[in-house]
Structure formats: structure tokens, C-alpha cells
Predict the 3D structure of the following.
Amino acid sequence: MRTDEALKILVKAKEEGRKVLLEHEAKKLCEIFDIPFAKSFLTKTSDEALEIANKLGYPVVLKIVSPDILHKTDVGGVVVNIRSDKELIEAYNKILKSVRKRKPEARIEGILVQEMVPKGIEAIVGAVKDPFFGYAIMFGLGGVFVEILRDVSFRIVPLSEEEAYQMVTEIKAYPILKGIRNMPPRDIDSIVKILLNTSKLLEKTSLIRELDLNPIMVYEKGKGAKVVDVKVILE
């Protein structure tokens, strides 16, 4: 495990006075701790973005990267489902124009080019640091299951494999993952792996205050899962 590399990312952000990791930094943590995520690369120019998009293959997503912008969609900083070189150049310029208009003081590090992952059952893994108990990790399905029904499970880090499976099976929406009616079963083992590796990330890097993997696309059994967005808030 490349723990030193992960700590360097966190320490660098703190030294720069930042409380939130940039998205490419947060996804680097995922890579280090073997948490599967949508492939993405930071680009500084539209030519670089074109090169990356053609390597990834269309469709792709573009996202603004700025330490001063937490909610990218609020400033027009995200364009999804880009399907050609022409659309990419238009989207790249549109994002820069929108961000500079709506948040002119924002420092722009570049634009992230990310693969457009297939739809799946949406899940969420989150964590928060408690001053007494340490990290509490949360699991639930996305959308209304978390936002309205509050159908989630919690455990204290470190997680055992048994506890990770319990977190998945004890939510009320578990039958959706198990497979119900004409819906196929989902890759529960991949969810458990994400929970366990997120637990390891938190154990090894005590500088994190909050972590949010949302959404996680969970595919049919045997086909894995992928984290689409990652947010890491530092102490």
C-alpha cells in the first residue's frame, strides 16, 4: 500500500491552505487504496482534453477543477455525454466561459476529462470523523433511499469483512441489490471491497474529516462497481 504517497497529497493540500481535495487528487487516493473509480485525467488545454478523450473513448464528461469551487454544477462547470471532438471543444470553452462569468475570482487548475460510465444501481459510501469514536462509515443506495428514506447503515472503522457484508444486507433496499422480480442481482462483493478499502484509507490517513463516494454505479453480479464522484474534506 502506497500510504506515504496518499499522505503527501493530503499534506500538500493542507500546506496550501485548502480544506477540500481537488477531484483528481481525491481519485488518486482511490487508486492508491484500490477503490474502483471512473477513469479521469486533468487537462490544462483543449488539445490535451481532445487527446485524453480519444484515449478514453467517447462519450466523456468534462468537469472544472478549482480549489474555489465545491459545487461544480452551480457555476456551469460540468458537461456530460460528450460524443465527439467537436462537442468536446464546444463544451470545454463553454465551461471556461461560464465559470469565469459566474465566479471570476476562482482559481482554475484545469478541466477533468472523465469516462462516461454506464448506468447502474446507484449507491453511496460516506464517512465522518468523530472526536471520540474516530471514523464512522456509512452505506446506502443513492437518490431517494438516502435523501428521503434515510435508508443507511453505519459502522465504526476499522471494518471487518463480516461487518461490511452486514452493512449491505441490513438496509431496507437490500432486495434491490440481491435481485428482485426481473431485476438481476448486483455485484455485492464489489460493494464490500469498496467499503473495506475505504476503511483502510481512513485508517491510514487521519487528516480526513469527511469523505463521500457518490454516486457509485453498481453493476450486475460479476461486473463490478465504479465510483463516479469523490469528495474529500480535510480537518
In short: DSSP finds eight helices and ten strands in the chain. The CA atoms of residues 35 and 194 lie 6 Å apart. The chain has a mean pLDDT of 94.
